[in-house]
Amino acid sequence: MTAIEVCNLTKRYGDTVAARDISFTVEQGEIFGILGPNGAGKTTTVECVVGLRTADAGSINVLGLDPVRQRAALRHEVGVQLQESRLPDKIRVDEAVALFRTFYRRPADGDQLLSLLGLTDKRRTQYRHLSGGQKQRLSVALALVGSPRVAVLDELTTGLDPQARRDTWELIEQVRDTGVTIILVTHFMDEAERLCDRLALIDGGQVVALDTPAGLVAQAGKEQRVRFRPARPFDDALLTELPEVSMVRRQGEQVTVSGTGNLLHTVTAALARQQIIAQDLRVDQVSLDDAFVALTGRSLES
Ligand SMILES: Nc1ncnc2c1ncn2[C@@H]1O[C@H](COP(=O)(O)OP(=O)(O)OP(=O)(O)O)[C@@H](O)[C@H]1O
């Protein structure tokens, strides 16, 4: 069942077109990623989805509701964790949860929520004394305190250390397992690859691709790379004449071969025929980052 439908959403700020003709649907129970570089229009898009901004054109339907005209009803169904949510320094974790529970007609059990988020030990701690990861988890808890059917999480793991990021990812999977539909805004490839069932790549306010992480990688082409250090010199022609090989590059002692098909077997067999041992042999699979470069012509990390 479709939980969210966005059709031809356009949003301008003066001369800037932040979102241009954006369309996508999110199925119930899915983790749907919105991935793109800074300024791509991700936050603008989700702010329109949750009714915090009014689109200039297009239509949006969230759980059968119009986010702007039926904002009051939608507020009880959609939990939002937007970038850099801040709370008063001295509010305690349990006080924040208790306060936010009063905003909703179907509040979640505060203790259960803190336990799910791994914050039970910190319930009496003031906000200012929480670590970055704990603040992040509290902001997720507050997005979930109204027992929403849809949660929108924006730049969830920005600024977290690797362990805290992994913990947060596990947490999001647990939340999804409770049946919540999740929109995850991110500019991290690894996060999108790990968590999202499907994702929209957004660049310059437009959806440039929409697919599963594996589907996006496949769209970007089936090229693979094999890298090794040959035990003795050889002529590039040995490999470039193979139909599977598209390019051979050398960097110091290292040889990188790009191509398709069963590239690893083809390359190692050709080398073996000449008794050349391939040392430090590695195969690089196409990543989501490569897919982004192929689809937009530039790197997300730049
Ligand atoms: N309130 C605003 N007024 C004017 N321009 C804005 C406003 N909010 C965003 N923009 C511009 O709209 C474009 C899209 O911004 P948006 O915040 O939606 O992108 P984003 O993909 O979420 O980026 P980031 O990852 O940096 O948050 C940018 O060019 C931004 O400068």
From TrEMBL:
The terms under GO molecular function for this entry are: ATP binding; ATP hydrolysis activity
InterPro entries assigned to the protein according to its UniProt record, in alphabetical order: AAA+_ATPase (IPR003593), ABC_transporter-like_ATP-bd (IPR003439), ABC_transporter-like_CS (IPR017871), ABC_transporter_ATP-binding (IPR050763), P-loop_NTPase (IPR027417)
UniProt key word Nucleotide-binding: yes
Instruction: Tell me where in this chain the ABC transporter domain is found.
Output: 4-229
Which Gene Ontology BP terms does the record give?
Answer: response to antibiotic
- In terms of one coarse class, where is the protein primarily found? membrane
- Membrane topology of the entry: Peripheral membrane protein
- What is the native source organism of this protein? Natronosporangium hydrolyticum
Q: PROSITE patterns, per this entry?
A: ABC_TRANSPORTER_1, ABC_TRANSPORTER_2
Q: Which PANTHER family match?
A: ABC TRANSPORTER ATP-BINDING PROTEIN (PTHR42711:SF16)
Q: Where in the cell is it found?
A: Cell membrane
Question: Per UniProt, which keywords does this protein have?
Answer: Antibiotic resistance, ATP-binding, Cell membrane, Membrane, Nucleotide-binding, Translocase, Transport
- Protein name stated in the entry: ABC transporter ATP-binding protein
Q: Does the keyword Coiled coil apply?
A: no
One cellular component term from this protein's GO annotations in UniProt = plasma membrane
